[in-house]
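Holo prediction. Input below; ligand is iron/sulfur cluster.
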Amino acid sequence: MTDQSVCTTCPYCGVGCGVLASPDGTIAGDLAHPANLGRLCSKGSALGETLDLEGRLLAPQIGNRRAGWDEALDLVANRFRAAAETHGPDSVAFYVSGQLLTEDYYVANKLIKGFIGTANIDTNSRLCMASSVAGHKRAFGTDTVPGQYTDFETAELVVLVGSNLAWCHPVLFQRLQAAKAVRPELKVVVIDPRRTATSQLADLHLGLRPDGDAVLFNLLLTELVRRDLVDRRYVAEAVSGFDAAVAEAERAEAAQTGLDSFELAQFLDLWCRTEKVVTLYSQGVNQSACGTDKVNAILNCHLATGRIGRPGMGPFSMTGQPNAMGGREVGGLANMLTCHLDLENAAHRDAVQQMWSAPTMADKPGLKAVELFDACARGEIKALWIMSTNPVVSLPDADAVAAAIRAVPFTVMTDIMADTDTGRCVDVLLPATGWGEKSGTVTNSERCISRQRRFLPTPGEARADWNILADVGRRMGWPEAFDYRSEAEVFREFARLSTLGHTFGKDFDISGLADLTDAEYDALPPTVWPVPTEGPSGGRFFADGGFYHPDGKAKMLPIAAPASEAPNTARPVRLNTGRVRDQWHTMTRTGKAPRLGAHMAEPYLEIHPGDAAAAGLSDADLAKVSSAHGSAILRVMITDRSQQGSVFVPMHWTDIVSSTGRINAVVAPTTDPVSGQPASKGTAVALEQVAAH
Ligand code: SF4
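Structure of the complex:
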């Protein structure tokens, strides 16, 4: 590495790897970072190829003309204030991103909930982990990830449910691979309707029927009861709802999983007779109309056996984005407050309002992502601010999302790129600093807070998101509340606020970091929360109970099997969307690195030979995939990786980089009724050939 190297954190997935980065684009894994211990994946190691300024937004724009910051920010402040005064605070909305740093997220949440007075702030993290958050809160009483990455290495059995870890969280997969190489007795089970790169590591791959997860874990719960493997002491002392959960689980039928009886028996036997079990789950669980129920069906099994919070065991939710967890901590979602406090609890709201010296407080949940853009389409939102995300590509029913944004009288977007699918729909574009140019903190999937540090000069007139938001807050009339000079000041205020977590008996507390000097903040090493002012820091939760429901117990929930869908002859195939190994989100950064493009050069339709034959498709044909919402044209890839009746399409390609159409224009805007997370893996589609190869 060069003398100018800085320790920072990768801006892509929720593993949160430490990176040594230099202004000349030299990149290496940080040996000292606990998430990756020096490893990087293909995306992380290509970061140096994505740092050029081509395509960057370098100055504010109003319409198609360049504007000064004063003019642009006065316009934003005036239009947001006017909308709130004329139509009420709920006519204003922010749609933010797990790409934001915690400091950005904190200021956005404070501005809209405490000063504008609405909870209409939601985030693209709604698309990746909302069902896990809802499941955690139902079971534990708060949104707590109980374990750590080292648990994967000390477990005897790792069960990966709905997770293509090898492509989506590659460094954690490398750690699991390395552990299995050293300890071949470590068993890996992959539960996924698709046979993915991850299943190559599996001792057992269960090609479950889509959405069969809750039934499978209900069967496991009854098997644990049948074998008398329930930890009766733990359940008696630390868990409620056991009998009702088991009674409902007994209604599960093995046929609903779509597994053959031998495979099913192997899985049940392995889980039952192995004490050190980690069950990791990701988007295949969360992105479902019954995602929260799937999460709770998994948590039920760990709670019934007390296999939680101890080394080498526990349920583990992987977050998709680099700071999805930070967004949860600051309360940057429509149904959350801050510091894991409850928006609908008057005492919690009053305490936060007092600490913020805020003139008002949102007192009811705001609109979740899909609802928010529906409200835009109905004309209920008069001013909308989108930050660091591209909903016209990433949200379901994406054409309707574009129309909804255009229907809002005033729209503003903060982004690093000048031309995005969403940017084309808004009135004002504000240039943000990007990775390497900005500074702050992110929290990864194991609750580890890491610094992102600057190592590049600020391009053009770009500014940090927290700085732009604070400036708008001052211009809207709250100069003292938003008088921040640095990201360190924002962080210290947030850390001070987190004493409320402790006061109200919640898990999130980083008050021990509230007095960091600027130099200490800059030098902050990776730090797992909680970090209270007094008492132990970091570690695991729940080994001896200590849950956050009023009775101090965890709750097991009765989980019913999802209603089975009637066959649809017009649209006979189920569309499953997801990621490819070498692209990230809508490709604004990874699309710049030629070697990343070499892995998958274009979007494709992965289809089983039986479905291809039924639709009259051959390999490399162009096929039209259509639903009730829209269509896309894709190159056919025939393979038995996807099971019959289900096709897979990656979600990254945009109208700007590909002329085939965004796949999310096809995806139905169905959501989980508890979490509001879109069900991105179950839209009924029709297939037709548009061009033979
Ligand atoms: Fe970045 Fe995730 Fe790869 Fe680590 S695993 S280098 S955080 S993309």
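The chain has four domains: 6-50, 61-124+323-484, 130-318, 573-691. That is the main takeaway for now.
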